[in-house]
Amino acid sequence: MRRVRYYEYGGPDVLTIEEAEVPVPGPGEVLLRTEAIGANFVDTRMRRGPAAGPLFRRALPGSLTGDVVGTVETTGPGVDQGLIGRRVAALSEDAFAEHVVTDARWLAPVPDEVDLGMASMLPMGAPVALRALRTGRLAEGETVLVHSAAGGIGHLALQLARLLGAGKVIAAVGSPAKFDFVRSHGADAVVDYAADDWPERVREAAPGGVDLVLDSVGGQILRQSLDLLAPFGRAVVYGVAGAELLDVPVTSLFALKSVAGFSLLAWRAAAPEQARAEMTELAGHAAAGRLRTAVHARLPLADPPAVHRLIEERTHLGRILVLP
């Protein structure tokens, strides 16, 4: 089979396609025949190595993570053989390959009605968006500010905020070219957080303050977001795409504000039954058409540098799919 590896750190061109044996699933695992792979931004950081900072270290040789949509071909010891032949999706640490071994416990069901783009969001993107909102205790009628709202997780968070009863949804994006996209996915107001006055634009949209902020950028964007919170407002941090670490100033929280962190792996470990139930819940929303994703591009597995170049341009809207 073909798979992607990198044997040195650097730019997109360090990604290479190579031949390898089809992996064998171990206890608790299944082997998937890959139909499509949802590419992840974080791999563009890890591919750079030490230059990307301490948060993004990955030993060499490196593989690429991703959300794999595929069919179960074989099962390892202790796994129900009834899974063979089922179409599923799974988050994988070695996703860019024609066959992938993954943990059977975290297979997301893919209903027949769900297309490849949305299917690729069921194992990771949609669960992160939903649980970030619930970690922030979103209540009906509240105002939500979603950063990186045109990205894979962000544009799902806009829709899920609506489904959970948000009164106003504000999308923050990195370019005016993305305004129409986020409006079409549920945003009432849009700001460009590359502009110096973006906090003022949020205050115009929400004069009483924001009840919940979802942030995956970190750094100064997070600091400014805390200032925008209303009394009893909450910020949920689930990433640091900006690669800038920030010590949250305690004094900024004295005005009855709070900050919570979220990690999908930590959530799965702490509440596995609820995490699995939410994956099924999200599959139901997708099958009913209440949740949709946009596919910006479909690129071949044979050209992995092109995938990372497109991600690093930061102009894409929604999901980038890789096809074997």
Please provide a brief summary of the model:
This protein has 324 residues and is of the alpha/beta class. The chain is built from ten helices and 15 strands.
Largest sheet: 7 strands, mixed
Q: How many β strands by DSSP? A: 15
Overall geometric form: globular
Uncertain ranges: none
- Strand-residue proportion: 25-35%
Mean pLDDT across every amino acid position: 94
Radius of gyration: 20 Å
Separation, N- and C-terminal Cα atoms = 10 Å
Name the structural class: alpha/beta
Give the helices and strands as they follow along the chain.
EEEHEEEEHHEHEHEHEHEEHHEHE
Any key phrases for this structure?
324 residues; seven-stranded mixed sheet
Question: Would you give an account of this structure?
Answer:
The chain is of the alpha/beta class. The protein is built from 10 helices and 15 strands. The relative contact order is 0.16. The model has no long low-confidence stretch (mean pLDDT 94).
